[in-house]
Amino acid sequence: MGTNGSGLRRGVALGALMLAAAPALAQQQRNSAPPAATEQLQLDQINVQGEREAAPLLQGPTTTTTTRAELDRQQVQSLTDLSNRVEAGITFNRQNGSLNIRGLDGARVLTTIDGIRQPFLIDTRINRAGTNAFDFDSLSSLDLLRGGSGGATLGGGALGGALAVRTLDPEDIIRNGRSYGALAKTGYDSTDRAWFGSAAAAARMGGTSVLLQGGFRNGNEIDSKGNDKSIGATRTAPNPADFNQYSFLGKIYQQVGEAHRFGITGEFFKRADRIQTRTSTVSLTGNFRPGAYQTGEDVERNRVSLTYDYKQPGGLLIDEAHANLYWQRLKRNDLVSAYRYTSIVGPYGRDNENEQTAYGFNGHVIKNLQTGGLSHRVLLGTELRMSSLKQYSSGVDNCPARPASGSYTGAFTTCNNLFTNQSDQPDIDGRLVGVYVQDEIGLLENRLRVTPGVRFDWYEEKPQSTPAYSAGGSRPVGLPPSSSDSAWSPRIRLEYDILKNAPWVKDVTVFAQWAKSFRAPTADELYGRFGGPSTYLRAGNPLLRPEEGNGVDVGLRFGDKQLGGSITYFHTSYRNYIEQYQQQAAGVGGLYPQGGIVGLRNIPRAEIQGVEVNGQYGFAPNWLVRGSFAYTRGRNKTDDIFLNSIPPMQGIVAIAYGTDRWGAEVSAKMAGKRDDVSTVQAGTGFKAPGYTIFNASAWWRPMPEIADLELQIGVYNIFDRKYWDAANVPLSRPQPRDYYSEPGRTVKATLKYQF
Fold first, then answer.
1. With b meaning 16 or more CB within 10 Å and e meaning fewer, what string describes 329-340?
2. Of the N and C termini of the chain, which has fewer Cβ atoms inside 10 Å?
3. Tens digits of per-residue pLDDT, 174-223?
4. What's the rounded Cα separation, in Å, for the pair 669 and 653?
5. pTM of this prediction?
6. CATH 3.30.565.10: does it fit domain 2-754?
7. Are 114 and 29 a contacting pair, CB within 8 Å?
């Protein structure tokens, strides 16, 4: 306990020091500079976070917004890029395909695209999922919410936080009062030797506006610092791979009068990865040999949505209304194509498919009003959703028909592990109903704001009987029960402006908020069932309870985009935390000699706490310095062990210069070592050394007076440092350490033209 406290105090001290230094430095610079210097400040050429407001459901002191211009300026085309260049303390975990916020990942972080929640589809057999089924070049902005306060508006899943992305609208492309516009971009990234490109065109004709956008990215495996290209268990170089990614976005809006807008959106995304396995699965003389074992992953998302937007300030009943009626399908296929040489000689293939189709409605209204000396901004909304989830594993092999005893013996013993042409879980029909309300109450001429809010959610996951599940190799007995529950997610936030329009900084505001949140178990956690007698069993638990979070955030924010920042301390306690555990040891009862039974359970208590700091300062004409810092600690309080998903202390510092013709930035990403890991969970936490990597980028607009043509080049990890992103290293590691290292020096070049 003493170690936790001292570590946290060091983190708080460092964050506070960074924050406290900014105003003092600002005052010193402004006192020494002539008055005209401030007036000549040209920050528009250096794109700064926060130039666009977060979506109404995510607005709050722990939300940051990254605009399209900022994504382009930082050459951000993935969540990994975002964590390395913009947002300290977050990580994209490539092992399970999820974003890590405040030490939580997977289904504990909610992802939405234009307000539509994205499912976390887990493949039971390989325990992987993915929520990043979108193209960064199709985005208008990206909101990142840290912590569970979004539960009061976004609902279940926002336990650790939320990633809310918004796609391009016609007004993002049409500029300078014209009725049309276009944007084209292409480039190369040596991280995965990828060529990429995108194009968008928009037009406005009277009250009708149209947008068409498409993009592609084709490349290979992500590089690392491993250089041993041997075959088998000693290999450290990444497996050879290639991928193809395509996306399309189309929107049509019709403006009716000044207040009403109707829209229709169609979106398509597809990515296909193919990996040639060269690691411990294959050997030169083994059952699987080089070139005879390929894995793959196909992800496809389709969406059609109808939208309605109303905005009439001072309206009789409401000032704003927004509605979204949608259909969405997300399909994920995990593939194996192989050939066996020694045991059951012949082809071996698998196609594990998960597909969810969802219909839903999201909507909210906003009303501003006065009652006596109080101002109110009331937000009222709902979320309705119906979904259907299907899972099936098809495949081929040379195994004979299963004997009457149910188990293979002799030369065909390996066939006991080959479960195929079956479902690893029943089909699931899901329903979700959510209703929420919040009121931002302004007192003392709006210097004090009190914002209470609450959301009620009810959900149900109902299994459906199918022959493919009932006859599965795991031998399920009957149909598991439905999982249904409800939850209240209250929140209250207080903000007080200590200073307003002060001479040395625009505003200084202290804030505090308390929020409860929850996360329903996924279909895989409830009903996933893979394995069988004579081998092992991985079994879901239909009696799992939803995870619950109870957290506070306390902090201070100040200033604007010229000089501004924030510091936040957070502490969240969790109940019914879901974890995987060894339910039955191998060989007990003789049924599962290989691995026993691995199950899931709720543990009573866990906690995560930490400090987050960010700031920016335009200290001279065309100059900007920015920084981001995060320190997080987390423990399973029931078993008194560390949580292995917690990242180390991290910071990002950058200095940039920009004019209307050219600019450059130099940045550093720093991380402390991570020793606080558990060795008693399902796998051993990775102890990672600390690191510092340096990045530099420059951009040039050769003819800004004639055409908006821009060339940008970035060099990342300039000094070719070997390092590990601790939260991105799996708990089970059959290969040597270097296999899990991050890329060395990489180069990215982009060419963009807009008119």
1. ebbbbbbbbbbb
2. N
3. 988 899 999 999 999 999 999 999 999 999 999 999 999 999 999 999 99
4. 7
5. 0.90
6. no
7. no
